[in-house]
Amino acid sequence: xxxxxxxxxxxxxxxxxxxxxxxCPSCGREHFPRTDPAVIVAIHDEGDARLLLGKNALxxxxxxxxxxxxxxxxxxxxxAAIVRELREEAGVxxxxxxxxxxxxWPYPRSLMLGFHAVVxxxxxxRPDGVEIVDTRWFTRSELRTALADPGAASFALPGxxxxxxxxxxxxxxxxx
Length: 176
Prior knowledge:
- The structure is a single chain.
- The chain is of the alpha+beta class.
- It has two domains: about 1-35, no CATH class; about 35-175, Nucleoside Triphosphate Pyrophosphohydrolase, CATH 3.90.79.10.
- The chain contains three helices and nine strands, in the order ββββββαβββαα.
- Strands 4, 5, 6, 7, 8 and 9 form a six-stranded mixed β-sheet that branches. The chain has a three-stranded antiparallel β-sheet with strand order 1-2-3, with no helix packed on it.
- α2 packs across α3 (about 165-175).
- The longest helix is centred in the middle third of the chain and has 13 residues, at about 80-90.
- The chain is elongated and about 60 Å long.
- About 25% of the residues are buried.
């Protein structure tokens, strides 16, 4: 927690809760770590037959495809962040979105807010070429195979502990 001194009285604070909080012995105030909201989005086409995933430049050599994510800017709504991030990273236009769950992500102190979004089908995805180096539409059948037997797929998916994986699994389980 980045609060060695109390913001209320200026006294030195003490670590508590295994380092997840600080306590001011002078005024009793508790200080908690900042948590930054980020949206993470599974993108469906209008017919709900395909899911768009992206390959991040950081894991391009692993040929891993995942959902799209980004931090919410100050003063920005979650919905506006979804529209902005998907336009920036994949060049797609959002028609609608709905909440799909959340996951705390301790490094770098983020709260991942998961969504499913429907995008216009007449706009071809365009990766930004910096953060996202490739985008690809996947069918339920392709993803079902990759989820059941990762070795049978020519691509990798996020690990089972991530909300990205849960959003993909949720979409695969939805009726077509």
